[in-house]
User: Fold this.
Amino acid sequence: MGKKSYVVAGGLIALALAGSGTTPAFAGNTQPTGKAPTGKAPAAEAKKVDFAGTVALSNCSGSVVRTPTSDPSDPALVLTNGHCIETGFPAAGEVIVDQPSTRTFKLLDAKANEVATLKASKVSYATMTDTDVTIYQLTSSYRDITKKYGIKPLVLEDDHPVKGRAITVVSGYWKKTYSCNIDGFVYRMKEGEWTWKDSVRYTPACRTIGGTSGSPVIDHKTGKVTAVNNTGNGGGERCTLNNPCEIDRKGNVTVRKGINYAQQTYGIVPCVGHDSKIDLNRPGCKLPRPAAGR
Assistant:
């Protein structure tokens, strides 16, 4: 697989967007066509969940996020998927830290209007190992964004997601939401060469599509980001690209065609230090580290 950008939501490749190279299926197994698909409304109606603080990338969705202890003067962070990084999918085992970037993001208000273009200064962290995340550091602080545009960052939940909890996936790319519940957690999920730990499985109502990769998953009870949307099984195949499979503690494999997934984000919180620096040596930080020599 070459170094290309992807939009994923329902499979790593399928969810990446057109115009950015070969698209991944991760976030919905369908490549966006430029029009939001029509269909039945989500079964569960989200309460008090809107688009404020979400962003649209060239090929994915994302959000401006902070930890519970972030300072308003800290550089703002944008969270999306590892497979959404502009340099292409990180290989299994690859971890990227402090990589220069000038990527831009369209910031949305509560009604999904684009109110600003934000710019990255670097990729603070990215990987598709154990999880599927990219964290960009911006040239603006949280205070800058709130003062200029009236938009507050979303807050990362610092505890494990809860089974059965009502959630909404908020796509800045499509300006569309998907509401359902957390169906459960997957011990190991494998898609192609990548393996993720303790993934979030949605109930069937969250039929995420290409371009929803990287969308924040909002817990209705707390209003915080509990996960980041990343993939789904679109074709019913076993553990192949765009067709992730579930593996239990005994090694049994289960395929759930049409079901979509997210990666938990509470593990990011202990890794964020002063000035929004991603410090993998902080107490409690368990994000994968770069291999020696990389």
